[in-house]
Amino acid sequence: MNKSPNTNRITISIFGKRNAGKSSLLNALADQDISIVSSIPGTTTDPVKKAMELHPAGPVLFIDTAGIDDEGVLGTLRVNRSLEVTRRTHLAIYVMDIEDIDEEALMNMKNIFKKYNTPYILVFNKIDRVSNGYIKEVKDRYQEAVFVSSLKKTNIEVLKDVLIKKIEHIKEEGLPLVGDLVPYNGKVMLVVSIDEEAPKGRLILPQVQVLRDCLDHGIMCYVVRDEELGAAIKDSGHIDLVITDSKIFKKVDKIVPEHINLTSFSILFARQKGELDEFIRGANAIASLAEEANILIAENCTHNTSHVDIGRVIIPRLLENKTGKKFKFHFQTGYDFTEDLSKYSLVIHCGGCMVNRKEIESRIKICREQNIPITNYGILLAYLNNILDRATRIFY
């Protein structure tokens, strides 16, 4: 479990004001020095991650964030970065210094947690500094809270027990990538494009995750390049599903016989981590885009681009060729995702293999609330190549 990808872990994020003891709490939970601890306000500037196993809940990812009361230009940037973490958080811990009870700050964070449907645990820290009588007074006011001393490690095990119980209520395995689409002992063929975008000596994460899902469900899996695909289909007999890189959809569609189901890695992730119907509606909205419309292309991984880059080159070119219109493309990478989409007419999202389902769901929610259509690389490329019905047939 220690090697589980972060996207497959329950994400537990720690929020609070500066010097509330967020970093020391993470260190106490992990039982090691992960975050730098200091009495100087604002020591934590960027989110700090720690992957670990929380028995018996399983693999989790803790994120320590900067103080929500940080000040100045840089402080505002840190606060915004902290609040962005909420989008991908399954369970939040809000830490308050028991000597600095700020009800307004707590209420503000409650509203943010509510916005992203994020359950939270209220934790009062530094109880070693106050009397038992004072602790009792605060307990009477906040009966659901957990009272700890991260410095003395008091009640840390109590907090872990509360975390485990909360996780059991929110934990979701989600849909498999392939396991519910193909029967046991079925055959799947993965088509991998080996070009200058492909990493040397290894497969990329979506390919690896699909391969592992096939193994987990007893599905026979063949991996081929597009150049050998035709021969592989002839040699393999019955094939239940062909899964391809989205950028070679058109080529693969011509090779794979119509009676064999075809989809892409990106579409599989669109179904698992997002809402397939929402992405299909987003693709169908392309026909009504105006000339010079602003389009946001969001991808979670960061990499060097080339003349065959799917997000920055292939999709813009195909989109303009398909519609006969010119558009203004804007790009965001990593966890950056603007929440003010008012200037955009469409959001095009990558497969999302590098983020968890919670993050994708949050982004879809932002788009829906602002009535901005959103689609996914795989869905869009299938639409642009006039094979969307075929590429999604196996899901319906």
Please provide a written account of the structure.
This protein has 396 residues and is an alpha/beta fold. It folds into 3 domains: 6-170, Rossmann fold (3-Layer(aba) Sandwich), CATH 3.40.50; 187-268, Rossmann fold (3-Layer(aba) Sandwich); 274-390, Rossmann fold (3-Layer(aba) Sandwich). It is built from 14 helices and 14 strands. It has helices at residues 22-30, 72-85, 103-115, 132-141, 156-170, 205-216, 229-236, 249-255, 265-273, 276-284, 310-323, 357-369, 377-384, 388-392, and strands at 10-16, 48-54, 58-64, 91-97, 120-125, 146-147, 187-191, 220-224, 241-244, 261-264, 294-299, 328-333, 346-349, 374-376. It has a 6-stranded mixed sheet, sandwiched between helices. The chain has a 4-stranded parallel sheet with strand order 8-7-9-10, with helices on both faces. It has a 4-stranded parallel sheet with strand order 12-11-13-14, sandwiched between helices. It is globular and about 80 Å long.
In short:
This protein is α/β, with parallel strands linked by helices and 396 residues long.
Walk me through the topology.
Layout: E1 10-16, H1 22-30, E2 48-54, E3 58-64, H2 72-85, E4 91-97, H3 103-115, E5 120-125, H4 132-141, E6 146-147, H5 156-170, E7 187-191, H6 205-216, E8 220-224, H7 229-236, E9 241-244, H8 249-255, E10 261-264, H9 265-273, H10 276-284, E11 294-299, H11 310-323, E12 328-333, E13 346-349, H12 357-369, E14 374-376, H13 377-384, H14 388-392
Parallel strand pairs: 1-3, 1-4, 4-5, 5-6, 7-8, 7-9, 9-10, 11-12, 11-13, 13-14
Antiparallel strand pairs: 2-3
Helix pairs in contact: 11-13
